[in-house]
Give the backbone structure.
Amino acid sequence: MTITAINARNQFKGRVVEIIRGPVLSEVDVETAAGIVTSVVTTRSIDTLNLEVGTEVLTVFKATEVLLARF
Amino acid sequence: MTITAINARNQFKGRVVEIIRGPVLSEVDVETAAGIVTSVVTTRSIDTLNLEVGTEVLTVFKATEVLLARF
Amino acid sequence: MTITAINARNQFKGRVVEIIRGPVLSEVDVETAAGIVTSVVTTRSIDTLNLEVGTEVLTVFKATEVLLARF
Amino acid sequence: MTITAINARNQFKGRVVEIIRGPVLSEVDVETAAGIVTSVVTTRSIDTLNLEVGTEVLTVFKATEVLLARF
Amino acid sequence: MTITAINARNQFKGRVVEIIRGPVLSEVDVETAAGIVTSVVTTRSIDTLNLEVGTEVLTVFKATEVLLARF
Amino acid sequence: MTITAINARNQFKGRVVEIIRGPVLSEVDVETAAGIVTSVVTTRSIDTLNLEVGTEVLTVFKATEVLLARF
């Protein structure tokens, strides 16, 4: 099914630069304009989405998941 | 207390460009190198952190919160 | 941008049956085959997605967000 | 301790149909009225809850974790 | 429905000491042995669970939601 | 970069008492005044933060991640 829009306000395009596969979950590192965004997804999803190094992806996260820190 | 390091792999610097205050939660929009990152935090935190438009902040989110989509 | 696939393993179709708008966040109740799925999203997203009662939507959530309980 | 009610608005009953064990986290697939709900929990929890294929469980997730997409 | 066990490894008992009601979400502050745990839940849940100042509750959160920081 | 304050309202100090390493994610158990708080973080973070049994850490989680249950 094709999705035309998703509510998450945070969506950044990038390219997969590394995948670390685990038995259940895998880490996917995505190079974006802001730097590397790291995602942990089920290993099954890696295969379902057919992700590999070089794949263009959209990283998506909800606003409620973002913390703010002062430095 | 000063924090010297936090485990979240996703940390992006930016500047607050808008705050929408609600009675319990508020939306904070932060301009980063990748574009606007939107965060929803408790309104109390806005005051505790003394956030206002122009404040430099770090946006932080865990790798487990990031979804990946193909387009 | 059109998304062709998203990694979240939990995706259920439904129809919006109620929207409770708040200043920052809104509650959207979606009738699915399993019953009502409740989502809280930014009020801005309601407008961006042009959601109203009757709209068909996909509810999406990550596997890491699901708790299991015995009863 | 017996819990009489939990605040999460999303609670769906089902039956465990598959468990993929990892060293730290495991995937549990639960068949519900809406289809398979996938959960990732600590492997320790699998043992503490004594989960196995066939166990009846309640899948629980917070409304703030649900994204909405149009298709 | 009575729940006999839930998988979340983090469960701390406490007593509600403050409720800040919003139109959609409300903040509930719970005094525990470790100090105040703050929870944000839907306002509907406040009513469904019949929460008020003084109510004994269990605060529950998944291990995947916890960040670690050095100081 | 040193962080002077973070918005998450839930921050509890403790000492690492156990680490279970996985290929992608690891479990870190932290003894706090309220009991053990369990965190799951990327294994890379364990190394970046140089965490080991005995390390003093701050456990941090957002108010939106906390569920409330009655018992």
User: Anything to note?
Assistant: The helical segments of chain D are 43-48. The longest strand of chain D covers residues 10-20. The interface with chain C takes residues 3, 6, 8-10, 12-13, 27-28, 30, 32-41, 45, 49-51, 55-71 of chain D (CB under 8 Å). The domain at 10-63 of chain D is CATH 2.40.50.100 (OB fold (Dihydrolipoamide Acetyltransferase, E2P)).
